[in-house]
Sequence to fold (393 residues):
Amino acid sequence: MKVRRLLIIAVSLTAIVFLAAATKSKPAAVTFTRDIAPIFYKNCVECHRSGEIAPMSLMTYQEVRPWSKAIRERIVDGSMPPWSADPKYGHWANDPRLSQAEKDTIINWVNAGSPKGEDKDLPPAPKFAEGWTIGTPDVVIEMPEEYSVPADGTVPYLYFSMPTNFTEDKWISAMEIRPGNRSVVHHVIAYAQDSKSKDTAPGGEGELRSGRTHLGGITPNKTGVTFGEGMARLIKKGSNIVFQMHYTTTGQATKDRTKIGFVFSKEPGRKMLVTGNTINTRFVIPAGAANHEVTASKTFDDDVIITSFMPHMHVRGKSFRYTAVYPDGRSEILLNVRITISTGSIPTSPPSRYCCPREPVSIQSPSSTILIRISSIPMRQRPSAGATRHGKR
Ligand code: HEC
Fold:
């Protein structure tokens, strides 16, 4: 009798276990409104919304649905969201990569036919302040008038100078450059030009001009930037803002009027933020070379804290490596960047995205050097002319 009772208990326990397992193995179907929209709002719509740099908006189900197979492809090959820093080196505050669970959710959703789900599950859409990603700026400075970009031909780099009308020195905690017409603006670099400098001619390569400091730049995959806690840029009173504009023609004559927005810092920056560059403009890549390396370096006289890196190169580049070389001979890889080449295509977006270390990199020993190695893609993979615009169509 006793034996039988035990057996029944054992059997019923097993049944419970099976029941639990059966419920677990049949997860609720993945839907756009409940599972996918939160991921896209967090990791994609910064660029994939109307008027932004990506080719299509991913804000609504109607907009997303036709792209679902392409989305699966770009999630599987890791090319979206764009990010090329090698995870082996450094930790990046702005690393936008999806977790494996998020990737699996998206892939399962596409495999299940991309169901929409219930409207009531949709979270509120993220709000973007009037197109500015830095919030509402305290001041906006705009090109004095529209520039007419011709239909064809090459437009040389152009320089526009605008007064700030600042009557006192200003500390800036965030800034953003907004092209008036993104289809023709390949890049903008903004400088602050000291009013006391005699070197006021608008043209010429920016960094080489006296009294000019680099504020920041924009390329198609870079939006506004808010500086870290206690950090600010100084723009002296009476300064002018100079834009270096690189326009590309599209076959259609059009106009552009680019602007820059600044958010003022509540208090002076405890750390003054400046932009420097380490650049190599004179090298030759032998024809057909599969892995030609170019280097550049910069040695610091003072202690510095590095808050961001911006590897930038045009069509030829395929990888970047920043190494700190200390006076005692030690060296350390700070950032390693490789372009992900999506299936069957040619790299169209050379790295040109800021990589911001989670903990700023502190270089405390003067005469340390940052050495940069860049390698190039072989000639036979040369992208078509249309692809030179950082992948923007
Ligand atoms: C930093 C900006 C940025 C972010 C963030 C971003 N994208 Fe993109 N995306 C682009 C740009 C620019 C292109 C066009 C160039 C290219 O195809 O690489 C693009 C292209 C694509 C394409 C290919 C479209 C085509 O024409 O075939 C897909 C699919 C895509 N993105 C999906 C996503 C998804 C999904 C996310 C989020 C998980 C995302 N992207 C995040 C900028 C971004």
About this structure: The radius of gyration is 26 Å. The chain is about 15% helix and 25% strand.
